[in-house]
Amino acid sequence: MRLRNEPARIRLKTAGSGRIVLGDQVSLNSGVTIFSAASVEIGAFSRIGDHASLFDTSFHAVHEGHAARPRPIRIGRNVWIGRNATILPGVSIGDHSVIAAGAVVFQDVPPASSGAAIRPVSSSMSARATIS
Fold first, then answer.
1. Catalytic annotation present for 66
2. CA 47, CA 25: separation in Å to the nearest integer?
3. Could you say which of 51, 60, 63, 66 is catalytic?
4. pLDDT digit string, tens, across residues 85-119
5. Looking at the chain, which runs of residues are DSSP E strands?
6. In whole angstroms, what is the distance from residue 29 CA to residue 61 CA?
7. With contact defined as beta carbons under 8 Å apart, do 122 and 129 qualify?
8. Which among 129, 49, 130 is positioned nearest to 75, based on CA atoms?
9. What average pLDDT does the segment 65-75 reach?
10. CA 32: distance to chain centroid?
11. What share of the chain is helix, strand, coil (3-state, %, to 5)?
12. First to last CA, the chain
């Protein structure tokens, strides 16, 4: 038996006027991919889990006859994004939020929220969980 334990590379890429801004003590784990054609900003003390992806563009037109529309991503301070999560164009994630592993985030997340972001489990860390 052969086991390989090689960390995946972190990929940071910009196109055109895209920019990536990392706050103080941001942690990017192995395999993280960030691509910016507009702007991706990650606040101080935030943690991005293994193989998470942040894309501020869809890379192609979503609707026939339209151009791709890059939209900025803003990640607040002290945010934890779980393994294999995907953050899509135009999303803002509020300070002190937790994004579940494997979540696909396509809408804004209020500060101090936890869950998969599409339907937060709680609106504050002390609130009780809701089930829909």
1. no
2. 9
3. 60
4. 999 999 999 999 999 999 999 999 999 988 754 55
5. 11-14, 20-22, 27-28, 33-36, 40-42, 47-48, 53-55, 73-75, 80-81, 86-87, 92-93, 98-99, 104-105, 114-115
6. 30
7. yes
8. 49
9. 89
10. 10
11. 0, 30, 70
12. 45
Give which of 48, 55, 38, 35 is closest to 76, Cα–Cα: 48
Instruction: Decide: pTM greater than 0.90.
Output: no
Tally the residues of the chain. 132
Higher pLDDT, 60 or 40: 40
Write out pLDDT tens, residues 18-42.
999 999 999 999 999 999 999 999 9
Task: From 10, 94, 90, select the one nearest 48 (Cα to Cα).
Answer: 10
Residue 80 confidence (pLDDT) above 50: yes
